[in-house]
Amino acid sequence: MTDIDVRVLTDEAEYRAAHTVFRSALHHAPAPDDKWEVAKGSYEPGRTIGAYAGDELVGGTQSFPSALAVPGGAVVPMAAVSRVGVRADWTRRGVLTAMQRAQLKALREGGDVAATLRPSEGAIYERFGYGVATRYREVRIRKREAAPRVPIVGRVRLVPVDEALPLAKELFERLSPGRPGTIARWPGWWDVRVAHSEDKDRLRFAVCSGEDGDDGYIAYKVERGSWDRGVEKPTVLEVMDFWAGNARAWADLWGFTLRVDLVGEVFAFGRPLDEPLEWLMTDRRAVFVEDVADETWLRLVDVEKALSARTYGAAEPVVIGVRDRFLPENEGAYRITSSGASRTDDAPDFELDVEVLGAAYLGDVSFSALAMTGRFAGGSPEAVRRADKLFAVDEAPWSGTFF
For residue 66, is it within any domain? Predict the structure, then answer.
């Protein structure tokens, strides 16, 4: 095949060309000038990589600067990888592999401990070391039957979008990164997804306050239904973004949502697996789980720093061997104890690829489940059980931010 030149893109013309390649890969037309004016602000210097065949840009990928909360409360530097695309006439010719290799190397050299992404397809990124580390659920609530059990205790008020944006940002930054899996949002996230969103005119913000001030918010929109005979469909309130700083604010915001008039159903995308929503309702059968899907695809860029950053449960030590064909610096054995993790020359109890470690890192899936499904082999059942106990967490990891 033709040699591929992978390099960092440096100016607006190159960014726009990469943006066009990405949109084309998703079968969208190039962004018109007004949309590009919004998008271009999210391209930060040094974080976009392009693949050239001669003078033609045939692929691109970028990352946003972020941070990731890990079990125990630490927050590590993290790259949010996005806008990955290869031109249709250049797929399956090594372009994506070349870009991934260059990007991962650059992220490690730049100090990122991890990278995460939200792929459009589920069978692409494991080969580059990404594992599914958090999941979410989509829920639909039949409002008439739901009847929340508790009254609204605090004050929930509607706030215009332009006024709500700084409030929401401040509240979000107070709450995330917080629980394991949550991440920091970069300025371009708010610009693209809120301030200049196609749904901006339809977005509504409700902000919740308690004795100590604002402590939660919800962003939603309403999809109007139809009452025509034969094609009846309910009006649906869609929850777009929901953050609460305490149990009272959480219950108040859900209570407000379920009391909005002229709405038949409430639909919420991307909610935590362990959110006790059913228990808030008089009739728990009013809550339907429509889907459970992968959310965070996690790539440990610096395994030693990542393992050292999180805390561990009470169990006897285990030594885990790690394989990483894209970042060989990560390869080796790591001793995990209840008091921490470090490299070791000891023989591993079992070995696995870096994407398998990434899947287990935040505690969403156990090593026992991964071993049972053939994701790694060689460990004794007793060693795998020790690893389960060490990596166990008290709450399901969750991000809550799509990008």
Answer: yes
